[in-house]
Amino acid sequence: ESTNDFRSQKDFLTQKLQHTESMNQALEARLSDLERRLQSNQQEREAFRRSLRQLLELLDGKLFELTELRDALGRIVESS
Amino acid sequence: ESTNDFRSQKDFLTQKLQHTESMNQALEARLSDLERRLQSNQQEREAFRRSLRQLLELLDGKLFELTELRDALGRIVESS
Amino acid sequence: ESTNDFRSQKDFLTQKLQHTESMNQALEARLSDLERRLQSNQQEREAFRRSLRQLLELLDGKLFELTELRDALGRIVESS
Amino acid sequence: ESTNDFRSQKDFLTQKLQHTESMNQALEARLSDLERRLQSNQQEREAFRRSLRQLLELLDGKLFELTELRDALGRIVESS
Fold it and tell me: How much is the ipTM here?
């Protein structure tokens, strides 16, 4: 091969490498973004579940108090 | 005692007896009325207790259904 | 009429009067008893209604708190 | 430059390009995986919210029925 052929091949490879490396950087940036979103989703989901669990405990308390009222009504009815 | 004395005593006794007998009738009428009211009160009271017992059963049903909803919410929260 | 006739009539009336008066006393005693029972029933009934009204107020409080929990759940669901 | 220098530079660039292209493929595979997980999370989240909304509707129904029971109790108490 002539020196010119080698030079043009080398330029082609250099350009292709630069292009591929910049694609790599773009892909890594998108990956980081998606990972942050997944992690943020996961945190929202856990916060959501914590809120729901607190609400379930409050609901349990109310159901217990309603059951006590029902029993108080039962006692009033039977004692009358 | 003279015949006049006896007659006036008899008239007094007869009048007093009539008065006492009419009081008796009035008392018996009031007694019947009170007994009817007591019986009517008793019936109302029993009807009232029956209504309350039916309501307690409905309340039990609703509390059961609320507890089922609470458990469904618990399962949704834990499965998420 | 002879004196004996008058005397026997007077004795008969006196006995009948005594019998009627003692019946009167018995009727008045029964009336007092029934009136006390009616009054006592009335007081029990009012105490019963007061208990039920207190219970209704407590029930209203619990229903309000349950509705607040439902709304809190609604907000959690819509914000998630 | 000598022909040998050009040849060794070309080989170096070719190897580096192959390495970068294979990294690219790995990154694209990971991106596809993360996108699938994000989409799947999103679908789970929507299914979860649908479940919670259905549950809220059932809860509303129960609260309405409890309020009706409370009103029935109120009417019974006031009519007694």
Answer: 0.81
